[in-house]
Amino acid sequence: MTLSTRTTEDFIGASRRIRQALWSGERLPEGALRAEIDASWRRSLGHGLSCWDEQAPASDSAADAERLLGSNRLLLDAATPQLDYLARQLGETGLIILGDSEARVLAIEGQTALLPGLGLHDLQVGSCWSEALRGTNALGTTLVEARPTLIDCGEHYLDRLSPFSCTSVPIRCPQGGVLGVLDLTRVGLMPQPQDNLATLLLAASQIESRLFAALYPEQLVVAFHCRRQYLDSPWQGLLALSLEGEVLAANDQACALLELPREALLGRRCAELLGGQGSQTLVRRLLQGAPLSVQTARGEFCCRTLQVPAAASAGLWQGMRPTPARADCLEALAGDDPRLARALRMARQGLAGGLPVLLLGETGTGKEVVAQALHQASARADKPFVAVNCAAIPEGLIESELFGYREGAFTGSRKGGMVGRLQQANGGTLFLDEIGDMPLTLQARLLRVLQERKVLPLGGGAEQDIDVAIICATHRDLRVQVQEKGFREDLYYRINGISLRLPALREREDLTALIERLLDKLGAPGVRLDADLQELFGHYDWPGNIRQLEMVLRAALAMREADESVLGLDHLSDSLLDELTASTRQASSIRENELKLIRDTLERQQGNVSAAAEALGISRATLYRKLKQLRG
Ligand SMILES: Nc1ncnc2c1ncn2[C@@H]1O[C@H](COP(=O)(O)OP(=O)(O)OP(=O)(O)O)[C@@H](O)[C@H]1O
Fold first, then answer.
1. Which of 6, 19, 40, 522 is the least crowded, having the fewest Cβ atoms under 10 Å away?
2. What single string gives the DSSP state of each residue in 93-110?
3. Class assignment of domain 327-503?
4. Under CATH, which architecture does the 216-313 domain have?
């Protein structure tokens, strides 16, 4: 019993026999279905779905559908021209469907009048076609597999979908990940499936190009390929460049054409990648808009400018654009770390484009500081920045804290009720710190708020519209939490628009500059560290990151005499020095070297402690203390 035969009736009949076998308690026979269909059926079984389900899951209300469209405006705007085109080309004999990243239908074009007659009452804007709800189907399965999928008639898990064939392709986000899905559905087996797939792929790539430009409205967006005919095709590379010529974003094809992973591309100067006499000159030529041919180490590339930023077209740019003042606070945070600077810039742009930002990093790496700086650098800077620490508020109170409540909502509720943090943040930025510690029940409520952008306070009353930029942070590995069912997968994808990992202090290359800034912040601008302390700091693990460094500097400054401008090991208390020297392998090698130096010096001075201390340039007391520490 396999699905290898190619007449519609045989095909549907064979798949029905597999379903009947499944229904009578048999296992899914190995090899009866194509490998990807087999895997999808097994997932559908795992979701507890019956393949005979006739009952469609309840669809969203018209108001819900309206909100869904509102929250996917960017994708819809980018897709509309392609939907019109495909409906004319392919929709004469079928349906063209656009879905969001959760397989909810955003648009249906083509033979929509035939939908009721086809028995597809539940195919409408707002309905969800995820695999978890409807089993194997092109929309849902494409999102699970993150690749183009063809589901022919009986390959659908639900028997009632057997008359249809569907081809879907993912629409990818410029930063990676899938943003939506484009689908062609027909009655009967799919004729020329490869042709249809090529047409859908082309349309998806055009939507992706438009999204790319929409996400980087302030940047110069350039398409390139080594063959001119491939410009405007799914294979064209796309780069978003700052007016200074720095690469800020690249699509997958750009990475493939330039033979570099995305991380290596971002932050590079365009002339290093696309040749030319310097990035400024290249930018100037690209701004003129005419097609260009550039000579690179990988051969000749043809370039076409897709978008000129408003600042340049308004004539504001004369070679070097001054950095917008609001971005200063962000740049200051990145210091001399180019990777961090690039990541912060991407987060700023993502936030400006309506994407939520997820900040990852160990405790004390500066997640809250970055969240505040992102808010300051955004157009919402003069609106509230509201931080909620999901780990610090008792579980029973988080709900009312976040959503607020009406007077009398529960025993002991405040007179007059309470405005929730979400409402307080309206117009501004909501920072959900330690989101990984949010209880599962609340995660479901938060997800609903993020999707619908409406809040219903505890105790009822009217729903309130909420317009907030969302920044979340956690020190936990959310993917592991998702696998362990401690964090909702749908919420994870919802908050993970742009994720930014803040480096641990031990990974940062700008420790010296950061120390300088911290000393400055602590009111000791001219103070510096001596070589020993610098070496110790450089080898220490810093489990508490910047917070711990700040505390150590604070403590050392407190030990300093008023006229001392150099901090050394002597300025650390014994317990602090113990802690800093005990924790790492490298530190223990410093400790060994120091011990050896002291021993050698004592030996040379025939055990005379005062002479050894003098030769080492430290006091007798310090030498005793060090010996005690180093031996102990
Ligand atoms: N780039 C920076 N320059 C100077 N100080 C900083 C910087 N980043 C963080 N700090 C300081 O480090 C401390 C910790 O920062 P922050 O609270 O933002 O870290 P966090 O990652 O949110 O920590 P937690 O995980 O505990 O919530 C704060 O005192 C902050 O002022």
1. 6
2. GEEEEEEETTSBEEEEEE
3. alpha beta
4. 2-Layer Sandwich (3.30)
